[in-house]
Amino acid sequence: MIYLASDHRGFQLKEAIKQFLAARSIAAEDRGAFAYDAGDDYVDFAAEAAAKITANPAEHRGIFICGSGQGMSIVANKFRGIRAALCWNTREAQQSRRDDDANILVLAADAYDEAQAQEIVAVWMDTPFSGEERHIRRLREIGDIEARNFK
């Protein structure tokens, strides 16, 4: 399952990404915002969706969108098992999946147009984790840090 989350600045792009995923027959669940509200907070939506992904981080993924992408990234990475990657282009999207097994793609709505965002999403969705030993070792090390810091 792909969980979607956005605040007001990412709302329009999230709606477009939702349609893009549906056209590719990719199941997605929208965790908000459900309407444009200039007073909403990205924290609420990122936390709601990240909690869903944390329930099964190996199987569930997310696409989070806010104006800069920074806030969504910060909130998402506060959850155990989350590896949220803010990607500015397709190369970063590919590397975040291939090398880091990122389970959340974060997009900056202010940085690119709908077509560019869709291209980033497509590459991210289509890129598998490489499974290379060095990357598995690094993910294990990240897990060790989480075990020490997330009580």
Order of helices and strands: EHEHEHEHEHH
Give the uncertain stretches in residue-range form.
none
- What is the mean predicted local confidence, pLDDT? 95
The percentage helix is 40-55%
Task: Give me the count of strands.
Answer: 5
Q: What is the number of domains?
A: 1
Topology-level CATH name: Ribose 5-phosphate Isomerase B, Chain: A
Sheet-strand content, in percent, reads 5-15%
Q: Main sheet?
A: 5 strands, parallel
Q: What general outline do the C-alpha atoms trace?
A: globular
Protein traits:
alpha/beta; Ribose 5-phosphate Isomerase B, Chain: A; five-stranded parallel beta sheet
Description:
- This protein is an alpha/beta fold.
- The protein has helices spanning about 10-25, 40-55, 70-75, 90-100, 115-125, 135-150; strands at about 1-5, 30, 60-65, 85, 105-110.
- The chain has a single domain, classed as 3-Layer(aba) Sandwich (Ribose 5-phosphate Isomerase B, Chain: A).
- The chain has a five-stranded parallel sheet, sandwiched between helices.
- Helix 1 packs across helix 5 (about 115-125), helix 2 (about 40-55) runs parallel beside helix 3 (about 70-75) and helix 4 (about 90-100) runs parallel beside helix 5 (about 115-125).
- The protein is globular, with a radius of gyration of 14 Å.
- It starts with a strand and ends with a helix.
- The model has no long low-confidence stretch (mean pLDDT about 95).
